[in-house]
Amino acid sequence: MDGLTRSLFTLAASLASFALGKQLGKRTASRLPALPHLPSALKWLITILSIALYALTIPFFVRLNHSWRPLATAALLLSFPGTLTRYVLSTQLNTRLHIFPLGTLIANEFATAVLAACHIIQRAPSPPPPVACSILQGIIDGFCGCLSTVSTFVVELRTLRGKKAWIYFLVSFILAQIILLLILGPAWWTGRIRESDICTFG
Asked: How confident is the model at residue 112 (pLDDT cuts 50, 70, 90)?
């Protein structure tokens, strides 16, 4: 019941935020100046700076304090692979089905499966060492956080509307629950993991 309440509240808050943003955009779009077209040199500069900043996350992860690095650098380190995976899935698969976006569905369900697996590994009877625990937290916050998407999901629900929107929502929600049941269920039922047991970062 707690999980259902959280899910419905998150969806309701996201839909309300989308509706508010849409209305604000309609009322302010005509009053805001249009963004100028960026020259090619500036685009290349931004690209190079982005790559350089992402590369810095590697030495930061290695050198910074172990007690707090998983909350920042580990997530940054693994955020780009998650973002790239979601982009590829959406661009290649979203138009394969006429009823709903297949790429977004696969991205969200795959992120759910990875989250469940990391949850189990973090709470294993023989906990992983601090570095591995940091990587697991980075996968949860960075990779899965960027691979899964509530915002795009909500936009797609509003775009589909009617019967297609309901089918998309129910397939996404029910499939995620089945995935969690299949991955987390056996570990909980056999007593191999407990919520209170978790590996440490340092």
From this structure: very high
Q: How far apart are CA 19 and CA 13, in angstroms?
A: 10
Residue scoring higher pLDDT (86 or 200) = 86
The two tokens of residue 86 are 């979601």
Average pLDDT score over the chain: 86
The single residue listed with the structure tokens 């940091």 is 134
Compute the half-sphere exposure of residue 16: CA atoms within 13 Å on the CB side of its CA: 6
Find the angle CA(135)-CA(138)-CA(144) to the nearest 5 degrees. 125
The pLDDT of residue 56 = 87
Tell me the two tokens of residue 24: 């604000």
Q: Tell me which residue of 109, 153, 13 sits closest to 5, measured CA to CA.
A: 13
Q: d(Cα 83, Cα 142) in Å, to the nearest integer? A: 9
User: Pick from 174, 172, 163: which is nearest to 14 by CA?
Assistant: 172
Is-contact 70 133, C-beta < 8 A?
yes
